[in-house]
């Protein structure tokens, strides 16, 4: 039934667009611009990354793959995490496959870049983690609160 309703809504939308093209007039009020996505402050970003990424994603880090438990000290990581949050904020409330698209189009490429042997964590201490038969091992991260001051690279 939901599929039929979605198809009917799509048909109605296409009909409105066609009427607009034919008549040269919009059939409905144009949608207002959505409210801008607010960037999180440093503490909010750290909390979001802990809750939505490092607390959930488990990867065996072997070979040249490196994660930095102090990721907030890397400007590129901060930039990528802010971008991930913005995409997540736009897609999280969308129905259907939106979250799957966020994983495929945003999170997965971001993790590939961050964990890359030539990525921002390349010179960080290697953190060997092997898959445990006893459960999930999230990516390491410290501390549970943001460090004092802005999230900036200090070293």
Describe this structure in words.
15% of the residues are buried. This protein has 155 residues and is mostly helical. Helix 3 (75-91) packs antiparallel against helix 4. The chain has helices at residues 2-23, 42-54, 75-91, 98-115. It contains 4 helices and no strands. The chain starts with a helix and ends in a 40-residue tail after the last helix. The chain folds into 2 domains: 1-31; 39-148, no CATH class. It holds the Pfam family DUF4913. It comes from Pseudonocardia petroleophila.
Please report which band the strand proportion falls in: under 5%, 5-15%, 15-25%, 25-35%, 35-45% or over 45%. Answer: under 5%
| Average of pLDDT | 73
Count every beta strand, where a strand is a DSSP E run of 2 or more residues.
0
Q: Which structural category do the helix and sheet elements fall into?
A: mainly alpha
Uncertain parts: 27-35, 127-136
Order of helices and strands: HHHH
**How many domains in all?**
2
The N- to C-terminal Cα distance equals 57 Å
CA radius of gyration is: 21 Å
Number of helices: 4
Report the helical percentage. Answer: 40-55%
Shape: elongated
Largest sheet, in brief, is: none
Protein name: DUF4913 domain-containing protein
InterPro entries: DUF4913
């Amino acid at each position: 039934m939901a599929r039929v309703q979605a198809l009917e809504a799509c048909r109605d939308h296409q009909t409105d667009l066609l009427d607009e093209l034919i008549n040269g007039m919009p059939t409905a009020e144009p949608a207002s611009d959505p409210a801008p996505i607010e960037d999180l402050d440093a503490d909010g970003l750290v909390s979001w990354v802990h809750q939505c990424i490092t607390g959930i994603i488990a990867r065996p880090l072997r070979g040249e793959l490196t994660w930095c438990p102090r990721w907030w000290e890397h400007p590129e990581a901060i930039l990528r995490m802010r971008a991930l949050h913005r995409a997540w904020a736009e897609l999280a409330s969308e129905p259907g496959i939106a979250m799957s698209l966020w994983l495929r189009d945003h999170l997965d490429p971001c993790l590939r870049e961050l964990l890359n042997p030539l990525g921002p964590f390349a010179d960080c201490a290697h953190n060997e983690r092997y898959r445990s038969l006893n459960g999930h091992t999230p990516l390491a991260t410290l501390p549970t609160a943001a460090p004092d001051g802005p999230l900036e690279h200090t070293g």
